Structure formats: C-alpha cells, structure tokens
Amino acid sequence: MKTLLIGMGNPILSDDAVGVRLARDIGRSLAATPGLSVMEECSVGGLNILEVVEGFERLIVLDAIRTTGGKPGDWHRFDSRMLRETMNLNNIHDVNFATALELGRRMGVSVPREEDIHIFAVEAADLVTFSERMTPEMETAYPEFRRAIQREIEGILGGD
C-alpha cells in the first residue's frame, strides 16, 4: 500500500518540532519498508495539503497537540473520522485538515480513505517559543514515546 509518513510542525518552535523529529527518526528506521515515503517536514495547511497527499493510499501524520490536562510526552492516536467534529467551512481561510481532505474527495482528488489516515499527536509543553530544541520535559519523554509510536506505525505497515 502506498503510504506517506508526514511530520507536521515547525522545527524552530520548540515542541512544535516533535512531529518533524519523529518523522525523521522513525522514517530512517523504516526506510526499507516497501511503499513507504517520508516527508519529514510539512507545514502546509488548508487546501495545500491535497497536493501533498494526492496519490497515496494511506497517510500517517505525526504532530504536536495541546489539550486540557495533557502532560508533555503523552500521545494520542486517532483517525480522520474522529476529526469530523472539527469540520467547518466558514470561509476559504478556515479549511482544516479534515475539511480539506473531504473536499478533495468530493472533487475527485485521489486521497486516502478516512480509515487509512492515522494521526499520532504528542502533547507539547511549548508551541510558541522560538527554539531549535524541545523543552526538557519533551526531551526526557522523547525516547519512550518515540518507541511506542514507532511500534504502532510498524503495526499499521505490517497489516498490508
């Protein structure tokens, strides 16, 4: 299955770099996996994501997240069906990930099915400070959550 692994985020915004770093590290570990392409750094949003994912059958997204009560280094796994609640299209500048993909499907763009989109989001402590380093909490937790997320991804890829 033609799969794209994407690291989302900004590598100079402290913990926002976690998706980029995970994509780099996990992508290198899984480089020999047939059908796997890796985009270590992706910062496009809105409808531009369609150009990135077009033609792939499966998508694995790595990103940072902040939730109420979340502890840095905790991580969540979900698929794009869980993003439906956030779908809204008030204006063209307000196209989120789920809306962009659904709009692409309706326009006939070849994008992965909802059930073939896997999102891993790591709780971050700081998403706004300019720094090429993650916070100490994230650096400490990184090896553990990286191993756990990589195992999950290997399970996804092994299901082919």
Task: Write structural notes for this entry.
There is one protein chain. This protein is α/β, with parallel strands linked by helices. Helix content is 31%, strand content 21%. It starts with a strand and ends with a helix. About 3% of the residues have low confidence.
Main attributes?
4 helices, five-stranded mixed β-sheet, 160 residues, 5 strands, 31% helix, alpha/beta, globular
Strand order of the largest sheet: 2-1-3-5-4
How helical, in percent, are the residues? 25-40%
The secondary-structure element order is: EHEHEEHEH
End-to-end Cα distance, whole Å, is: 7 Å
Give the secondary structure arrangement, pairings included.
Elements lengths: L2 E6 L9 H12 L6 E7 L6 H5 L4 E8 L9 E5 L17 H10 L10 E7 L12 H23 L2
Parallel strand pairs: 1-2, 1-3, 3-5
Antiparallel strand pairs: 4-5
Q: Short description, anyone?
A:
With 160 residues, this protein is an alpha/beta fold.
